[in-house]
Amino acid sequence: MLKEERHNYILHQINLHNKILSSSLSEQIQVSEDTIRRDLQELAQEGKIVKVHGGALSKSFNPVAGAADTVYALEEKRIIANKALQFIKDGMFILTTGGTTITELARILPKDLQATFITVSLSAATEFTNHPNIEVIILGDKLSRNSKITVGAETILKIQQIKADLCFIGINAIDILGGLMDNDWDVVQVKRAMVNSSKKVIALSVSEKVNTFEPLKICEAGEIDILVTELEPESEKLQPYKSKGIQIF
Amino acid sequence: MLKEERHNYILHQINLHNKILSSSLSEQIQVSEDTIRRDLQELAQEGKIVKVHGGALSKSFNPVAGAADTVYALEEKRIIANKALQFIKDGMFILTTGGTTITELARILPKDLQATFITVSLSAATEFTNHPNIEVIILGDKLSRNSKITVGAETILKIQQIKADLCFIGINAIDILGGLMDNDWDVVQVKRAMVNSSKKVIALSVSEKVNTFEPLKICEAGEIDILVTELEPESEKLQPYKSKGIQIF
DNA sequence: TAGATTACCGCAAAAAACCGCAGAAACAAC
DNA sequence: GTTGTTTCTGCGGTTTTTTGCGGTAATCTA
């Protein structure tokens, strides 16, 4: 088999499987691993694949490095935040949890919006203060080192004393049967309290988290009123939720 | 599974769920926990995640506090913060106001310090969370847009329920006759309450602000116990305060 | 403070990469 | 077909990576 042929074959395999092992290629093409290594090196040099110890990865599969502290799936979260805007009206009292989606929502709020946001998240609070007409209430208590939100009995108590018009809740995992789930005990308590203290609950989630699980349950899927993802509302993945009576946006 | 493949998988999991346990990853990928730990270490070194005991956290969840925009008179504030360190002992309950000097102090605290900090400042709170042994309490209430600290009746009430060992108070203006002063009504209320709720009051101030005036009075100069500036304690400017019984550092 | 979990360190085995080198194959020109 | 040149390939030996494991130190949790 000629070198060119091999290269094409290798490229084909990598694009098909996103990864390939030198050893497996060596066996398939019946050449020594050294040869494969040299092939992979060349292809990598041409920028067609990414060579790694033991084989190679497809370029598209390998996320570009350097995207260090950018928010994961920022585009999706922007879309979600924009969809969420429509539910906010002047004069509302709105509860929010933490998370990057919520923070993104806080960032893009219209400047002339007059509303009161009640939050447990430091970053969301900071973002809210950039909006001149928004009143920000922080629910104070012990600060959770993991999630950078305030947690504890005091927070829960304060939430219980509120009946907010809206609650934006960032979702970590949601499933038709499992409901809303998360992985931090303190955070779960806060989110559950928020769900109970709001007339309308709006869950924000990237579609990737839909139909996934986490160990701790916040509430039933049916307890949320609206689910916002970056997908089209007609998307196949969301239909089960729609038929459960949840509005999809 | 190739190492880079694992890394991609781990990154994906962390970005999806904000946090991940080494043990769970080890089980999912079927490699030893040691390997996972090494993976997490590498990813952390590349700045893609934040490694913690038992697993790792998403970076976007943990805003890098150190990335502050330029602070006025940072060197002076560093000196002050370093001097202030000596007053902090293990086990103390410490009240703090906001301001860049306080935030600087929060940043340089020794890693092994065990103490409880009660604060109204978002930036100080964020900084405190980087210290593993420090408990952070945020006094929640309305968030003041100007000063990024919480203000209001609820905050005052909570402060009054505390008797802290120490209070670090960032000074806006101080004068022998005028006492401690500030220019924001809400902030003044908070600072005054803190002074009254602490066994020992330590005022931190760049020398520039010594002998200046602001419209609103917090308390008499004599009510503070210790004054820390970037100057030598023997400095001419500070002698009047010393003779008033205030310790100078 | 004790007991359990997690982290760290060094080691050793296995796998992979690297380095020349020499023979084989491909190519071009005569 | 031959010949010289260039490129390619496999192989032995060495070096580097990667990984798991045992023992110990650090850390967390109740």
How would you characterize the overall build of this protein?
The structure is a homodimer of 249-residue chains. With 249 residues, chain A is an alpha/beta fold. Chain A has 9 helices and 15 strands. The first copy, chain A, has helices spanning 3-17, 22-29, 33-45, 74-85, 100-108, 122-128, 153-160, 185-196, 239-243; strands at residues 19-21, 49-52, 55-58, 93-96, 115-119, 134-138, 142-143, 150-151, 164-170, 173-175, 179-182, 198-204, 216-219, 226-228, 247-248. In chain A, the strands form 4 sheets. A 7-stranded parallel β-sheet of chain A has the order 6-5-4-9-12-14-15, with helices on both faces. In chain A, helix 4 crosses helix 5. The longest helix of chain A is centred in the first third of the chain and has 15 residues, at 3-17. Chains A and B meet through helix 6, strand 6, strand 7 and helix 7 of A and helix 1, helix 6, strand 6, strand 7 and helix 7 of B.
